[in-house]
Structures are given as C-alpha cells and as structure tokens.
Amino acid sequence: MEVPSSWDALRKQARKLEAQLDEQMNSYRKLVSNNVSTKADAAESDLESWIERLLKQLQQVNTQMQAWVSSGGSEMVSHTLTRHQEILQDLTQEFYRLRSSLKAKQEHASLLEDFKEFDRTRLDLEQVDSEQHALLKERTSISRNTGHMDNVISQAQATLGALVFQRSTFGGINSKLGNVSSRLPTVNSILSAIKRKKSMDTIILSLVAAVCTFLIFIYWLSK
Amino acid sequence: MADQLSKGEEFEKKAEKKLSGWGLFGSKYEDAADLFDKAANCFKLAKSWDKAGATYLKLASCHLKLESKHEAAQAHVDAAHCYKKTNINESVSCLDRAVNLFCDIGRLSMAARYLKEIAELYEGEQNIEQALVYYEKSADFFQNEEVTTSANQCKQKVAQFAAQLEQYQKSIDIYEEIARQSLNNNLLKYGVKGHLLNAGICQLCKEDVVAITNALERYQELDPTFSGTREYRLLADIAAAIDEEDVAKFTDVVKEFDSMTPLDSWKTTLLLRVKEKLKAKELEEDDLT
User: Where are the membrane-spanning stretches (chain A) (predicted)?
Assistant: First the structure.
C-alpha cells in the first residue's frame, strides 16, 4: 500500500518532536533530582518553556494527522495515529508531574530558608554556657523522642485511613449488590420481550396457515 | 490485531445496515445495539481507542432510542474509559452525559461516582478550577445519598483546591465541619488535629491575627486535647510571629516542626505565602524606619 508523502512528512515530524521531547525530559528529570536551590534559575524556566513549546507543536502535528486520517486513512495508519496520541498524553502527564515535584521542592527550601538565622545561631552558640548547653541537649533529645512517638501515631492513623477506605469499599460493594437486585426489572423487560417474540411467532404461524389454506382453496376451485 | 480491527468494522457495517433497514420483525435498534457492542469490543481488543469510543457513542444513541437510559449511560461510561487513553476532553464530555442520564433515572450514587471520576481527570490535567467544581458536585451527591465517607473525601479535595485558589474562607469552613463530624466518631477523632491544623493554616493565610486567635480558642473548645498537640503549638507560635512581624521567628518555628513532621507540598505552599507576606511587611517597616 502506498502512503502519500504528506502522511510521511507528518509522521517524520511527529517522530522528530518525540525524540526531542525525550531528550529534553531527561535533562529536566536530572535537573529536578539535582535541584537544591530556592530560586528558579534561568536554565529551569528556559527548559520548561522549551518543553511546553514542543508539546504544543506535537499536539498540532497530531491534530493534522487526525484530520488526515478522518479524510480516509487505512487501518495501519489509524493505528499509528493512536500510538502517537498515547505517546503525547504520556509525555504531557510526566511533564506535569515533574514540574509539580520541582515546584514543591523549591517551595519547601524557600520556606525553611532564612539568612539572618545563621548569624543568630552562631551568636547563641557563643553565648551559651555549659549548663544551658546541657539543658538544650536534653530538650533536643526529648523533642526527638516526641517526634518518634508522633511517627508511631502517624502510622496508626495511616492504618486507620486504610481501614476506613476498606469500609467505604465494602459500602460500595453493598450498593453494587443493591444495584444488582434493582436490575431485576431488567428481567421483567426480558420476559416482556419473550412475550412479544411469542406473539410474533403466533402471528407468523397464523399467516402461514392462512396462506396454505388459501392455496388449497385455489387448487380445489381449479379442479 | 488487524483481524480484530477488520472484524470490528464488519460488525459496525452490519449495525449501520440494520439501522438504515426496515425492521419487520423485532426492533432494529436492539439488533444494532448488539452489533455495535461487539464492534466496540473488537476495537478495544485492537487498541483502537478512538474507534471504540465512537462506536460506544453510537451504542448509547441506540439505547436512547430504546428508552433504556441505564444502558445508554453505561455505554457513555465505556466510551469515556476508551477516550481516557487518547482524548481527555472527549472523555469528560462522555462522563458528563452519563451523569445526566443517571440523574434522570434517579441513580445519584452512580452519578456521584462518575462526577468524582471527572474531577480526577481534571486534577490529572492540573485544571484545579474545574476539578474543584466537580469535586463539589460529587460531594453534594454523596451527601444526598448519605455516603458520608466518600462525601468527606471529596470535601477535603474541595478544601485543598480552594486554598490553592486563595478561597481561604471556604477551605476553613470545610475543614472545620469535617473536624466537627470526626469528633463524633471514635474511629476518626484522632485525625481531628490534622483537619484543625489545615484550617489553622488557612486562617494564617488570611493575615488576620484576631481571627486566628479566635479560631484557636474555638478549636480548643471543640477538642480539649488539641491545645496539647504540636499542631496547636505550631499555629500559636506562627500567630505570635505574625503579630510581632518577625520572619526569623516564623522560620525557626516552621523549621522545628518540619524537622519532626515533614510538611507536605500543600502546607509548604500555603506557609510560603504567609512567609512572603510577612517578609514584605517587614521590609515595608524597614523602609519607613
């Protein structure tokens, strides 16, 4: 089967864009995992806008391919189009996820950053004598123990959440069973369909009998 | 793969022929519906999601002609699940139509479930406004059907997105209501401090120290054990830092809390907003000085 050149050109363009997107996404992924700064630097925003532009272009190419297929493409071609659409969707979802992750990391670092604190901490350390230092260490260890207890409580709460979710799942099952029992009216509609079929059969049988009787009558007259 | 596709197209042609033909015995729509169902199934096996979705839509229109609204709604749901893989907008519109049909026949719990599914699709697309709208509808429907657990899950999503869109009062109202409900349930009361913390953080974003203080007092009345928790301590200390307009103290308090209970991204975002406002105020005062 000969595929027109316009399809070939579109496909080549889509493949090229997908390859570029893969490359840029890898760079972006490395950037996200290595990021420790609080400021969004130029490299990140450049890369983001570049990826966004590529995604828009790929979307346009897919739209053109869709239009081409709608005006009479073959099975193989439409299957290829579906594959490209899936790729576009996967890339878009992953880009959104990475961007959210990067933003969350930046916000977290920015929230905990304070330039004055460093100096103040140093001053505090210089002023503290040994007795206060011991008390501070004790306070820190008590806080750490409290943290551990909070962790255990959090695990218990997570377990509780899972159990609550199971409860809602069983509630869903219960409502599904109710739904099944409420489908019994469907059985009534099946019975009424059977009844209708039966009356239809009766009509057919009557017609056949009438036709036979009529033919016998004609034969009897012609004797 | 290809043979499934050709089989599907064959079934579809038969169905179209049935529709255009004259049905002497039996209903042509019933027969066409059966054939469309087979065709859609073949398309799914061939992974032709667009064709499968389109065929399910034809199946739905057949069922509508037959006055079978439940079957039509189910066909729309199947179409939506097919389109979900390639075309989110089409998927959402199919689910929307399914929801309307389920409402017509009075199946609100199924309507609520698919409204939640629409909201999840929008959430995946990072369209927070639409996700909020549909989560809200879903919560209403679940509430109407007395499915409180699912309603509260949807409401928490509504509160989360409302806060992200800076509709803090709405968020606060929802969290406080959920906390109040949870207090009456022995299983859920240990999660109350989480809800109150979320409500408190939203109060902090409103930049009203008096309202924060009143809210903290109200929370203590709601839950007497709350005043002994670290969450209460965090909120009270942040309120004090805001009152004194001290960014360093704010940062110390948040850092101490974060060192033991790491903050999730939602709390981080909101607290960062508070900190930036506080910093702006401090700079303003420095300029005046």
Answer: 202-221
